[in-house]
What does this fold into?
Amino acid sequence: MNTTVLAFLVLYYVVVLGIGLWAMRRGATDDLEGYFLGGREVGPLVTALTLQSTSMSGYMFLGAGSLAYTTGYWSLWFAAGDIGGGVLNLSIIGRRMRKLSQIMGSLTSIEYLEARYPSPVTRLIAASLTVFLLAFYVLAQFIAGGKGMALVTGLEYEWALLIALAIITIYTLLGGYLAVAYTDLFQSLIMLVGVLWVLGAALVHVGGFTAANQTLAEIDPTILSIWGTGLGFEGQWGVVAGAVLVFSAGYMGWPHVVTRHMAMKRPATARLAGAYATAWNLLFVSAPYLVGILAILILPNLDDPELAIFEVAQTLLPSAVTGIVMAAIMAAIMSTADSLLLQTGSIASRDLYERFINPRASEQQMLWVSRALVLAIGVIGYLVALIEPPAVAFVVIFATSVLGSAFAPAFVCAVWWKKANTPGAIASMVTGAVTSVLWELAGLAATTTLAPVTVGLTASTVAIVVVSLATRRSSPVPTYVLAAMEETARVGPIPERLIAMSDFALEPEATEIESLLRGEEEQ
Amino acid sequence: MFGLPLSTSLLVLGFPLFWILYTIGFLLLTRNWDNEGDER
It folds into this structure.
């Protein structure tokens, strides 16, 4: 066990906890909008960095390094889309989603979908899909956390996994959105410093970028190819399109990420947040892939390619700096895991339990449902990660492919296409999810050279267009939704009459809070 | 460039350049958004 590295890791946890507690006090509020959306008071820098650090998970330090180590420069196709994921998301749906969600009085991304595509079926399908996929996604973070902790502490993987999982779960149960958003800001900066430090050290070690590429060419020139080591993906444009799309267009369908739009201080926050997101991505996104490629030269006989970045850091950096890098890795894991768990718990309690099982559930009951689900995911995640841990890259790419395929067209059309109606959105979600899952399970990517996300996104887009047009007479878009969409398209303050719609939508919450306050007064 | 084949250089440098231009275009086209004011 390296005590210096461990000391830095402990220091990191203390700082994160401190920021979380400070943010909770700063955003102390007794309403649900405060808990779920930070009172819609989040500025552009925090919006951009919480968006990015939430989407850049443990995958960036384990999956990206592993992909690069095994496939060479081909892995940069994922970075090519990822760099623009933030600005694409904010420019296409950011401002409009913020405005429409306020008019509709929606607090979660699933509630927002139901408000735009009115039907309990919309919420049931969207919530069920999201809970399942986010739980699967968080599994990758547990595995990444366990592997990282094992390397730092020298403990057996079983114990390291248990410690990592306990830290992530307890930390998530502590606070709401604002605490998550502000800790994400700090964690994103740590991630940036950590990965650039490893990249710098690796480049110095191999004699510079050009020299490294020349040496790689001597080992195997296909490492430098855009078609992957051994030209394994030669001519497979469908797979390449999937790699570019999954973290760019697909990213607009991740419910735990698009919630960030709803929490922005004002709709125009999307503008500056887009610029910050691109700046951060330009510095961060390619770096883990490049370290993975350089690891081929530095550590040519790695047993577990997922540990490429960990091992490069331990080999080249002094203990104190390795501590910062390890903190960065844990930051990437935790900043995603806390958001995933928070969203999964919120959706399960609010969008499933309260909506379909116990409509008169008190806030206390909903909180317990949320906590119980987080703990259940923790236990199941521990068992899966222990017995047969799948590759982090596989889990993340699979879960995000299905999420993007199921939801991206529904979220985009929600603000851009007035003809998109409820049957169209439901058909799109089901078609996107089923197509991408079957494509993956049947191994059709290999035989057709089309990635699941490429097929899933295409299928769900076609579904929303065809079904919306076919059912436009039997299921017209309600006039109040059309009015809200027209207002959303306009740049300007929301008129009072539409704010009244928001008050109407939030009426059940207001009644709940009122009854709680009355109860307190009576006591 | 940097000892890489041309296609790989385009992948490594071309996409970041594209997203920089996209972001600049986004900022230019949305200058009027800041006039929206605080809607709360």
Q: What stands out?
A: DSSP finds 24 helices and no strands in chain A. The mean pLDDT of chain A is 85. Chain A touches chain B at residues 40, 73, 76-77, 79-81, 83-84, 87-88, 91, 95, 99, 102, 209-214, 217, 224-226, 265-268, 270-271, 274-275, 278, 281-282, 286, 491-494 (CB under 8 Å).
